[in-house]
Amino acid sequence: MEHGSKVSHTYDFVGSVWSFFRRCVYSIISIGPIPNHIAFIMDGNRRYAKCHGLKPNAGHRMGFLALMSVLQYCYEMGVHYVTVYAFSIDNFNRTPEEVQHVMDLMQDKIEGLLKEESFVNKYGIRVNFWGNLRLLRESVRLAAEKAMAATAENKGAVLSICIAYTSRDEIVHAIQGACKEKYNQNQSSKDVKEDEISIADLESHMYTSGCPDPDIIVRTSGETRLSNFLLWQSSRSYLHVHNALWPEISFCHLVWEILQYQRVQPFLVKQKEKSL
Amino acid sequence: MDSRDKIPSLLTPQFKISQRSGAWMLLSEFCWHLLHFVVHMVHIVSHMVDSFQFYFISSGLLREYDILQVKKLRHLAIIFDSEEAHQTSKIGELISYLLSFGVKHISLYDMEGVLKQSNEMEFILKGLNDSSATSHFEADANPSTAFLDKEKMKLELLSFSDGKEGVAKAASLLYSKYLTDVDIGEHQIEPRFTEADVDGALRSVGCEGPEPDLLLIVGPARCSLGFPAWRMRYTEIVHIGPLGSVKFGAIVKAIYDFSKKHQNYGS
User: Fold this and answer.
1) A93, A134, A171: which to substitute to probe chain B, counting the most B Cβ within 10 Å?
2) Per residue in A67-112, pLDDT tens?
3) Which helix (H) or strand (E) holds B158?
4) Distance, in angstroms, between B130 CA and closest chain A CA?
5) How far is Cα A44 from Cα B91, in angstroms, rounded to an integer?
6) Where would you find the membrane-spanning parts of this chain (chain A) (predicted)?
7) B216 - beta bridge partners?
8) Strands, E, within chain A: which ranges?
């Protein structure tokens, strides 16, 4: 019993030192600009499992743990919006067993988000699910819709999870939404009819409407493509590649990418100003 | 205290600038500059290592780069920072170098359309004709596209307006088609389009084009600067630094790395 309590004290002590260290690092890096929105392409779960002789499913579970730590660090640092690419429409082409497992894992974790002790409640996070949710099995879709409704009033940070998402699908979705809106407007208005769809019309029908464009898009496992993720929104984003696989991503990786972002941020701001 | 009341305090960064004491602030600033100095040094060292590697590649000392398989690379795009896009002689040099790889389609992009301005373009193409004896330039009906005749190589010039504005034009076209369908009673209120419909509409408004296999970013940051979003789904994006310091070895390495890439398109 006494031994157990000693272990627990040591654990608490290490935890406090680690937490203090993190605060010091946040204090230093916040001298420079801190991104408002970071998006992650979580790549490398299966490769990680393969390298460590595990089943692919175990890789996805490790990936979820990595995501939890990354979210905690981001919110502690003051990043207000975090977006993650969890499941692409193309991922439905994987083996039925793997798709089934990922869906089970997602349903389990989405339901977990609503529990009192979850990090969503701890940080008052608003959760969005972006994508063609009709492609998901009903139980996952319902869990996602329930989570969005339950956190809609939260005033804290915003976590957006892209599932059954591709950027092209989002653009098609926005065109459909804009056409429908234009049609309804023209039906109800007696003035001169407007048949042109503008960029702003399209953007108001993107899943990302109301959310600023990402400042940084991070991809892990050394891959250099965006794989159909936020193509529309990434025109002024700094694209960062980590060689680490997603489950290996750590606090140091996050600090490194923020420092890299701070180096190029004046150039990106200039580009934004030019387009205004 | 309700858990929601705790949220603002939890979310507030632990060290608000206004709450920091002067000494702490000074120390933080010193550490921040020190950290950035370290990052800068890391960049200098990695730049030196790269330069050596690029030098060895260019001089043919690294054997694996000699037998470069570029069959996979059909379409290459390059993004320039608009400020650097005025350095036309360097751009011309870069393109004539790329011609030697036998790439069939090269797209050049800069946000403000500096390259599209005719006199700049003429200058680049003149440079191309001088440096590549076998190629012959013939202007296409579309002012932003040029064909290098004998080589059957297509050169395309793009700017910001070919991206989002192009999609908005395509959306307007789809809307007008949708109105016609509604009029003849084929559709109810719900518009339904596919990616193929958008492809077709982009073709009709003159904003279509192939997806580049490889996209080289020439400029200070790894950022796509508004390159047409519809055309970069699975494009490999490689940053090769500002135009002034681009080494040909860097391009060889980017093409070599691309030739070794395997994509499984999500499956």
Assistant:
1) A171
2) 999 999 999 999 999 999 999 999 999 999 989 999 999 999 999 8
3) strand B153-158
4) 34
5) 37
6) none
7) B78, B238
8) 37-41, 81-88, 126-130, 158-165, 216-219, 238-241
Pairing of strands B145-148, B153-158: antiparallel
Contact list, A157 vs chain B (CB under 8 Å): 11
- Interface predicted TM-score of the whole assembly (ipTM), two decimals: 0.90
- Is the pLDDT at B135 greater than 50, yes or no? no
> How far lies A2's CA from each of A5, A7, A9, A88, B107, in Å?
5, 9, 11, 50, 70
Distances from the Cα of B238 to the Cαs of A47, A55, B51, B221, in angstroms? 22, 32, 16, 11
Domains of chain A: 35-165+213-275 (3.40.1180.10), 168-211 (no CATH)
Options 3.30.565.10, 3.40.50.620, 3.40.50.2300, 3.40.1180.10; CATH of B70-163+207-260: 3.40.1180.10
Tell me if chain A has a CB within 8 Å of the CB of B165: yes
Beta bridge partners of B6: none
Q: Quick one: tokens of A35?
A: 């991104």
- Domain locations in chain B as residue ranges: 21-67, 70-163+207-260, 165-202
DSSP-derived pairing of the beta strands B145-148 and B137-139: antiparallel
Compute the distance between CA of residue A259 and CA of residue B36 in angstroms, rounded to an integer: 7
Q: Cα B141–B147–B149 angle (5° rounding)? A: 120
B199 CB-near residues (< 8 Å, 6+ apart)? B208
Sign of torsion, CA B169 B172 B176 B178?
Answer: positive
Q: B258: which 2 tokens? A: 């691309």
A205-259: pLDDT as tens digits: 999 999 999 999 999 999 999 999 999 999 999 999 999 999 999 999 999 999 9
What confidence score (pLDDT) does residue A5 get?
73
Residues 38-67 of A with CB under 8 A from B: none
SS3 for B179?
Answer: helix
DSSP classification of residue A35: P
| C-alpha torsion B184→B186→B191→B197, nearest 10 | -100
Residue where the block lists tokens 């429908």: A180
- B239 CB-side CA count, 13 A: 18
* Residue of A43, A201, A213, A215 marked active site: A43
